[in-house]
Q: What sequence folds into this?
């Protein structure tokens, strides 16, 4: 199965390479030309030796002419080799670019459950580290494989033209080198694949620890983190040493066999020269060819070992590319335009895992402009409902309709364009403050941006930044406070103002005084718009038109704030517990 998988990966790589077949043919042509020119030089060197071999019989004119030919051919060969290397680089990096682009495109359409189940650092490792390793192996293959094969064929023909018997000695002994190289290469693949997997594990761990360094230091987990890192590092060291050790056996083993071949050629050639069947210059040329004939076997064996590593890395990237994408929009999916915000949940059931059902028989009718609050203890399914509304996850049973149309029959793009989300977890990208605000409305004017920032009470802190709206922030907001980050996310939604709003603990990181102002801004923003408000602080949702009280994935109570308090049920217990002394 290992070899079959290896072959399958190679076939997939060749599918990408075939798009650059013209460049590939050019590289092969240049390899052939440079090899022929390189191999012709020993013929000229042999002639030059014969011109000076006799005592007091040096043919200076012919010698100078031959040396000039050698210089011209060597210079031209160097130029063509430079062109060939440029072509090989172009093929390699175009292929890697295409594979990396396809992998990144696949991430955009992967279901969220895949991203939730796989460490982000491991995915990053496939796109960056594995792609780079693959590029190195592929480049080495292009640089040496074509030239090596052409050199073997060319030297064989040149040797055959000088002396067939000595050529037979070389050809008979050389397969030993190939056998040794193939034997070792076939056993290094699994080591290189294991090395790639552990490297991805290490990248994932580093990414996780850097992202959460504050938490690590807050709980004094530095020593424990170092221990875990050292453990992964040791695994990588052992795996890498095995891979490198076995692959490094190839070169010395093949060199030993090549030296045996060279010695055999020297002995056979010397006997032939003594018998007069070959000239001294011819023998010198033959020895040069014998060395050049065996040299590509060393290079190809090295390429095979490196190519095993490249294929192991490519296999991991292809695993990502071949992951099942999210269910595509149906051919009859409609584009939702001018949504009113009417949403109906009918007998909705959902679970993240088959053995544990989370949402059970959920029914809800939301009229346009209603404010729906969703409350309940942690793990009751509040955020899950939001995920289902946005089609981040698909319902297992039942249906969710928007303006009377099942959302599975609405294009995801138009559906999500109808929602504006402010989550507890903020997300900001590297760029200017302005870039982060206009994500939902790229064509917004400066006046609209400023008005949205003022409405969210973000304008004042933005103006205090070094370059105002043109201030560049780093990944995830850089040095901005958590509250400032959340204000920017609120501004983003204020600017777009879609027909349906989702506020998931939207003011959790904002001080009470600012929260009151934000609540006023939200009240204006929500007017005439359907709103879903997820809140732990129940004092913030007393004005909601209806409150869904969730417990273990089921709606245990539903109604207005006063009605639910009068029932003195689960909601009343939650509400009163927040004010208990």
A:
């Amino acid at each position: 199965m290992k070899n079959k998988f290896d072959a399958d990966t190679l076939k997939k790589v060749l599918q990408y390479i075939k798009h650059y077949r013209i460049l590939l043919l050019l590289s092969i042509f240049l390899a052939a030309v440079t090899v022929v020119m390189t191999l012709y030089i020993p013929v000229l060197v042999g002639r030059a030796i014969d011109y000076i071999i006799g005592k007091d019989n040096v043919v200076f004119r012919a010698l100078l002419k031959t040396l000039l030919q050698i210089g011209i051919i060597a210079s031209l060969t160097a130029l063509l080799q430079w062109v060939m290397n440029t072509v090989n680089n172009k093929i390699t990096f175009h292929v890697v670019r295409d594979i990396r682009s396809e992998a990144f495109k696949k991430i955009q359409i992967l279901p969220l459950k895949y991203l939730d189940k796989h460490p982000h650092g491991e995915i990053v490792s496939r796109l960056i580290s594995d792609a780079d390793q693959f590029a190195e192996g592929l480049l080495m293959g292009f640089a040496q494989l074509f030239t090596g094969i052409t050199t073997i064929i060319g030297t064989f023909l040149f040797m055959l033209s000088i002396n067939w018997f000595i050529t037979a000695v070389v050809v008979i002994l050389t397969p030993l080198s190939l056998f040794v190289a193939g034997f070792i290469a076939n056993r290094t693949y699994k080591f290189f694949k294991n090395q790639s997997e552990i490297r991805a594990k290490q990248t994932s761990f580093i990414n996780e620890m850097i992202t959460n360094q504050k938490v690590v230091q807050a709980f004094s987990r530095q020593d424990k983190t170092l221990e875990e890192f050292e453990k992964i590092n040791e695994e990588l060291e052992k795996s890498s040493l095995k891979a490198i050790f076995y692959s490094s056996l190839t070169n010395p083993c093949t060199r030993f066999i090549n030296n045996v071949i060279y010695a055999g050629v020297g002995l056979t050639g010397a006997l032939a020269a003594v018998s007069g069947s070959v000239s001294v210059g011819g023998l010198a040329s033959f020895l040069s060819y014998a060395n050049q004939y065996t040299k590509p076997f060393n290079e190809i064996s090295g390429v095979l070992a490196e190519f095993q590593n490249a294929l192991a890395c490519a296999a991991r990237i292809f695993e990502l590319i071949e992951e099942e994408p999210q269910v595509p929009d149906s051919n009859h999916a409609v584009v939702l335009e001018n949504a009113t915000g009417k949403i109906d949940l009918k007998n909705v059931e959902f679970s993240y895992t088959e053995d544990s059902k989370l949402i059970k028989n959920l029914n809800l009718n939301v009229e346009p402009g209603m404010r729906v609050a969703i409350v309940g203890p942690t793990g009751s399914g509040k955020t899950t409902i939001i995920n289902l509304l946005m089609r981040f996850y698909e319902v297992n049973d039942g249906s969710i309709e928007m303006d009377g149309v099942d959302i599975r029959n609405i294009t995801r793009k138009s559906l999500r364009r109808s929602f504006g989300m402010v989550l507890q977890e903020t997300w900001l990208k590297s760029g200017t403050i302005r870039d982060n605000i206009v994500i939902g409305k790229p064509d917004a004017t400066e006046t609209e941006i400023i008005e949205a920032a003022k409405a969210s009470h973000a304008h004042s802190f933005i103006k205090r930044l070094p370059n105002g709206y043109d201030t560049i922030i780093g990944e995830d907001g850089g040095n901005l406070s958590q509250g400032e980050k959340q204000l920017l996310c609120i501004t983003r939604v204020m600017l777009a103002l879609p027909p349906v709003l989702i506020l998931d603990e939207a003011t959790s990181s904002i001080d009470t005084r600012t929260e009151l102002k934000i609540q006023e801004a939200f009240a204006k923003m929500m007017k005439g718009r359907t709103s879903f408000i997820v809140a732990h602080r129940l004092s913030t949702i007393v004005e909601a038109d209806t409150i869904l009280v969730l417990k273990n994935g089921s709606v245990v109570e539903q109604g207005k704030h006063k009605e639910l308090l009068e029932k003195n049920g689960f909601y009343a217990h939650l509400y009163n517990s927040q004010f208990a002394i």
In short: The longest strand covers residues 343-350. The two ends are 66 Å apart (CA to CA). Confidence is low (pLDDT under 50) at residues 1-5. Residues 47 and 281 are 6 Å apart (CA to CA).
